[in-house]
Amino acid sequence: MFRLRRYRVFLAFAVITIIALYQFSSSSSPWTEQAASRFGQSQGGDTEPQVKWEPKPQVAKETKQFEVEVSAATNPQAKQTPPPIAPVEKPVDKKSTTAQGKNSIPVGVGAGHAARPDATSTPATEEKDRGQDILGALLSSSEEAAHWTKMKEQYPVPTESLIALPTAKAKSIPKIQADFKKESDVEKADREIKLGTIKDVFKRSWSGYKEFAWLHDEVMPVSGSKKDPFAGWGATLVDALDTLWIMGLKEEFEEAVKAVEKIDFTTTHRSDIPLFETTIRYLGGFLAAYDMAGKQHEILLTKAKELAEILMAAFDTPNRMPQTYYFWQPDFSAIPHPASNHVVLAEIGSLSMEFTYLAQLTGDHKYYDAIARITDNLEGYQNHTRLPGMWPTYFDASGCVKHQYNTSPNKPLQKPITAGDPGWDEALKNGAYLKANPSQPLVLPPAKDGSIAVGVEELSPNGKKYIPLEKPEPLKMAPNGPNPTWKPPPEESIDWPGPPNAAPKKRQLAAAGFSSVPEATPVKSMLAAVGFPSDPEATPVKPTCDNPGFGPSSTGGREEYTLGGMSDSTYEYLPKQYLLLGGQVEKYRTMYEVSAEVMKKYLIFRPMLPNNDDILFSGKLLVYAQEPGEPLTTDLEPEYAHLTCFTGGMFGMSARIFERPKDLEIAAKLTEGCVYAYNMTATGIMPEAFEGVACESQKVCTWNETLYNEVLDPNADIRLKQHEEAMANYEIKLKSASLWFDEQMKAYMEATAAPVPVATSVVAPVAEVTKVPDSVLDKRELADLAANRKGKVLRPPQNGSTNAESGPADDEPPTKIATEEEEEPSPSRVMPTFPAIYSPQVPLNHEEYVKMRLEEERLPLGVTRIKAREYILRPEAIESVWYMYRLTGDSYWREAGWRMFEAIETHTKTLHGNSAIDDVTKTSPTLNDSMESFWLAETLKYYYLLFSEEDVVSLDEWVLNTEAHPFRRPKA
After folding, report:
1. Which stretch of DSSP H or E encloses residue 622?
2. Mean pLDDT across the stretch 118-143?
3. Which Enzyme Commission number(s) are on file for it (predicted)?
4. Distance separating alpha carbons of residues 694 and 863, to the nearest angstrom
5. What average pLDDT does this structure show over 740-759?
6. Confidence class for position 145, pLDDT limits 50, 70, 90
7. Is 688 a catalytic residue?
């Protein structure tokens, strides 16, 4: 009966719930409509809103995308239909003239580019805005994203000033590829089997991308998810177009070309567009696929031009140097901006091939002009760095900072002049030659005493003598300060901006962007100085930068010079640009050859290895600031990175086209260094970066185990000395603690010792009575105890009698026995504890420490540190292996490349493609669930070309950009 009643309650509750849900779903006024009506909007928008829409000030947001992996979001869930939502249009400020969207104000910019407060926002509307914000958050999904719009150029290049694309007939350039011998039937069958295996790996990766990340940047091959680290324009799709064509996957190629039409380059979830990555992947991918497919798919060239128009907006700066991270939103892009004063070399120096090829395919000179100006500035800066001939990884490209040299962008580099050369005498006349030829270094001969002679007087950057400055007058304090005599200057003496004929100070203030009224607030002044007008209706102040050249980002500290990350493709593009232009621009050859000599002298080294392998690595050179005239202070980090492995191909190709036969040997040893790095790990894959021991000579380099162990354990002596000092301190503490303990123990023993009985001839010793609980005493003992409590004493038995009870003797005083009420508790004492003193741990000796490092860090012999253990499917090593095979025809490179491919496939294979791994030194590395677009665009393409017939993408017909996109070379 009780159970039946309980079920009735549950049944009634279920009926009520069903009725409530039905009423909610059939309601004629959805919750969004009700929310909208609260703020004066009807469902159909026929009635006027009750509250005027006044936008809140826009706030800068976090640039970095917030990504959280939520299992519930990735697991398949049953789809649920949400309640219907009435369409509601967000009111738009009619005064606004720019497109508004979710990201209408760029995020992540510097403090100088803070978002401007909207003029229509007032404290009176704060409460209304709060409610409107709530409604806007509810309806944010219906907002349209901001779109890039082409603005009027702030710093246009006149048509007559454009640097024209060279159109003359290409020069005759030496042959690059080797003459290959005919392969046997067995060799052909083996090669085709390997070619098919590589193609299958590509198809698996492409299928994973198509199924899980179509039109997104990358697929996550382990989880089957997607991500958009670039602009969300389908990086893998565009990057792999030419690989699809080369591998003969024509159906997949046609499908991908159709998908390209859906890409909208005018909007992205990012607030900025990375110019370098977008150029090499997207622009290069479109152009290569368009040309390789016979120029039949016009949509590819159209998309390339659409993207190029957006990228060209990044060049709209005072010196026409690009913003390498272009903030594209209309509200920000409409404001004049200079290029960065802290650019990465590779990001600004690796745009030349793509824009040149676009100019060649379209005939539009503006694309070539954009990158030719970068080349001119690189040329002008090349011999003025701390390491003349190379460029640091970071430098100033803004043109707004005065440098201590005058660049001659259009003047080619020249060899140094020495005593006896033409112009030597002129060079010593008042420094006239140096000022007229800043790009030509001067080498002065040493004097007889060995010192360096000085041929000209010490000059300032403007060519004048240095004159000591006079001591300035004492500063006057502001009002209310320590100087009571201070008075403000008369108002008419203050220089504020005025007409064009105003005083120089006025013009300077105006150029700096300060407001034209004395009452201007500091905030307005600062905003105006960076391009924001103090008046919303005013025209932004353009930054004025009259120095077009490049220069150092800072005058102190150290600079890095490397062929690895942040520099690599700038050097790679010098010989490749020479090929793409048909040898018509000689400066690219000169710039490469000057830099190559510096690379060989300062960066390339032979590592010390157990088997004395004759290979080469390319390290990182740190150059420290020095005063003029002081010797160069450098420090070589014997690092070798996977990114640096491209150098073998660069040196090899350049050795052929520039007829530098010795460099071909260097190219082979650099490539062999990468092959060695693959073979030295447990997985057979090269780590991202590691360090070794550099030998002083590239010719003689003998294994020295003692030296190697010292590099692994440079602090053995320090460690031993520290242990000795710790032991000495330990002995002192131990002795001190022992003395203290002895004293405490002595005091304890004295305080707890039993009283010494006093021997007399009259008083007999009295037995000590121990108090015992009554419950454990027998009757006889109870009687004795009772007598004792009455003030009587129990004496020892005499004359053999027992239990003798008697009072005090007549001849001695009675002994008083204290009762329980009269007893005083004696203080309890605890035995002292010896202080806790720990002896120093015995350190490992030198041999034990070296063994420990080798085992725990899994270091191959010869490697002193693995800086980065991961492998992210990089292509640079196989790139150089392919180049060396095409240059030499030696089958060794095919064998080495196949071992590398098998190792990669074994440890990176997933169900939906291939994944980056966390540690190449593990026997079972962890998959990182990442597959960058260059896995399909470069890595697998190079493996496929290694086993293709040699006329497929011949180096005598094509030149590949840094993303392995082939561009057709002009015919001689």
Report:
1. strand 620-624
2. 39
3. 3.2.1.-
4. 11
5. 79
6. confident
7. yes
C-alpha separations of 686 from 565, 621, 969 in Å? 16, 22, 33
| CA 878 – CA 901 distance, rounded (Å) | 9
> From the DSSP assignment, how many helices (H) and strands (E) are in the chain?
31, 18
Interior angle at CA 295, CA 347 and CA 163, nearest 5: 45
Tokens for 334, please give them: 């409409």
Give the per-residue pLDDT at 426. Answer: 57
Reported confidence tier of residue 904, pLDDT bands at 50, 70, 90:
very high
Concatenated DSSP letters for 835-856?
---PPPPPPP-HHHHHHHHHHH
Which whole number is the average pLDDT over 612-623?
96
On whether the CB atoms of residues 202 and 247 are closer than 8 A, the answer is yes
Q: Which of 568, 572, 672, 879 is catalytic?
A: 568
Of 228, 252, 379, 688, the catalytic one is 688
Distance between CA atoms of residues 303 and 232, nearest Å:
15
Q: Please name the amino acid found at residue 462.
A: N
Please tell me whether residue 536 adopts helix, strand or coil conformation. coil
Q: Are 608 and 694 in contact (CB under 8 A)?
A: yes
Residue 786 is encoded by which pair of tokens?
């009772």
The SS3 of residue 608 is coil
Q: How many residues does the chain have?
A: 972
Q: At 299, which amino acid appears?
A: I
Among left, alpha and beta (phi > 0; psi -120 to 50; other), residue 566 is left
| Nearest CA-CA partner of 317 in 293, 297, 333 | 333
pLDDT in tens, 335-379: 888 999 999 999 999 999 999 999 999 999 999 999 999 999 999
Active site residue 217: no
User: In angstroms, rounded to a whole number, what is the distance separating the alpha carbons of residues 562 and 387?
Assistant: 11
Longest Cα separation, the chain: 148
pLDDT tens-digit readout, 624-682: 987 777 787 899 999 999 999 999 999 999 999 999 999 999 999 999 999 999 999 99
277 catalytically annotated? yes
Q: Is the pTM of this model over 0.90?
A: no
Task: Identify the top-confidence range among 79-93, 225-239, 460-474.
Answer: 225-239
962 marked as part of a ligand binding site: yes
The pair of three-digit structure tokens given for residue 396, joined into one six-digit string: 């100033």
Q: Name the amino acid, one letter, at 850.
A: V
pLDDT band at 825 (very low <50, low <70, confident <90, very high): low
**Structure token pair of residue 50:** 């009750």
Strand pairing class (394-395; 909-910): unpaired
CB 713 within 8 A of CB 849: yes
Both tokens of 75, joined, read 């697991």
Whether 823 is catalytic is: no
Q: Which residue has the tokens 């690059």?
A: 176
325 or 103, greater pLDDT: 325
Of the candidates 183, 277, 784, 905, the residue annotated as catalytic is 277
DSSP string, 39-54: TT--SSS-SPPSS---
Q: What is the mean pLDDT of residues 792-821?
A: 46
Residue pair 454/398 in contact by the 8 Å Cβ criterion: no
Mean pLDDT for 783-805 is: 45
| Of 679, 673, 901, 674, the residue nearest 191 (C-alpha) | 901
117: phi then psi, degrees, rounded to nearest 5? -70, 140
Per-residue pLDDT for 417 more than 70? no
Within 8 A by CB and 6+ apart from 673, the residues are 607, 615, 616, 617, 640, 645, 648
Which structure tokens are listed for 175?
Answer: 């042959």
Q: Output the six-digit token pair for 358.
A: 């676009």
Alpha-carbon span 574 to 379, nearest angstrom: 11
Residue-averaged pLDDT of the chain: 76
Chain position carrying tokens 């725990």: 856
- Locus of tokens 């320090």: 718
Residues whose CB is less than 8 angstroms from the CB of residue 266 and which lie 6 or more positions away in sequence, other chains included: 147, 148, 149, 310
